[in-house]
UniProtKB/TrEMBL annotation:
The keyword Oxidoreductase applies. Signal peptide: none annotated. The keyword Chaperone does not apply. This is D-arabinono-1,4-lactone oxidase. Gene3D superfamilies: 3.30.465.10, 3.30.70.2520, 3.30.70.2530, Uridine Diphospho-n-acetylenolpyruvylglucosamine Reductase, domain 2, Vanillyl-alcohol Oxidase, Chain A, domain 4. Keywords: Oxidoreductase. InterPro entries: ALO_C, FAD-bd_PCMH, FAD-bd_PCMH-like_sf, FAD-bd_PCMH_sub1, FAD-bd_PCMH_sub2, FAD_lactone_oxidase-like, Oxid_FAD_bind_N, Vanillyl_alc_oxidase_C-sub2. PANTHER family: D-ARABINONO-1,4-LACTONE OXIDASE (PTHR43762:SF1), L-GULONOLACTONE OXIDASE (PTHR43762).
Amino acid sequence: MSERLTNWAGNIGFGARRLVRPRTLDELREVVTGSERLRVLGSGHSFNRLADTDGDLVSLAGLPRTVEVAADRATVRIDGGVRYGELATRLADEGLAVHNMASLPHISVAGAVATATHGSGVGNGNLATAVSGLEILRADGSMAVLDRSDPDFAGAVVGLGALGVVTALTLDVRPAFDLRQYVYEDLPEASLHGHLDEILSAGYSVSLFTRWTGPGVDQVWLKRTEPMEGDFFGARPAAGPRHPVPGMPTENCTEQGGAPGPWHARLPHFRMEFTPSSGEELQSEWHLPRSAALAAIEAVSGLRERVAAVLQVCEIRTIAADTLWLSPHHGRDSLALHFTWIADTEAVLPVVADLEEALAPFGARPHWGKIFTTAPSELRAGYPRFADFAALTTRFDPTGAFRNPWLDALLG
């Protein structure tokens, strides 16, 4: 390629020989059947080489947008290039909603699903759990259509792009709903230790933000239907709009202060009209059993000075258990520890390794699309259905057209 193509953060330079932007499904099929190796590039919001290839990178952004609500208004079928902001706008016009959103509405739905990216909430499964159907274009040009009745379905949803090109998804939808968003500051350490489960269960979606510079939590972002008054477990209401990272522009964040608003304007942390073109940051995230939440937080606290030196902010949130084979929340209600680092890979990687060692006793599973150093053998051991997934990739893609070195190492 004449242009240097990078991921959103700029820490990964893709090695592809070309970037292809098909405009129709027929053009996409020609690209797929004519390529020896290819990967699909979503919104580029991954931080490792999961999406990289020495063959062809394929963007689905140029395909015709499809957002088709079923006659029973229980599902919506979308094309593989739709982003959450586009989906939310169309669903809102129909008086419908998805159960959860990512922090950024600018990421592609198919990419978020393929890596089990998630929102927050003790009763909310990750974004992939909304999927009820998949249409996957295979390397030979054939189309695999799966739904929840198919024995391969639970393995294919969080597929890491290893099975083929997801050209369309069907998602469960629900009637639209309103939420209020509150921000509280300076949650005391005693509240964190004595009431953690109550705090995390206090809203439809709850996020705790800390820079690990002190023993408490800097901010609590609470999204719920009912109004709130007064303090929150010793944390005081913020005096005005806040950004998770102190000093960053608050006008980019979704409305706070308890004003009711539609689900798509409250569940993300950032407004749809604010479109980040690049990120001066790196990200890591680990998922562990919610039953070990406090012990895991204490383990990270033991590395506080190391972490704080290279950290912008850490977000702590919850996700409900699911049955998807490669979901980090497979079989267990989970706590997520999400770290937004400074944009310095050399300084960040040793801290990532320290955190992995500290969180290993809790069975922590890293987010597939973020920075981690865990050995592939350890990753495989953390998923009871991993061998089944590896067999599924061989059946769907026997020539390895959708493989890359990252996947080769993972699949063994």
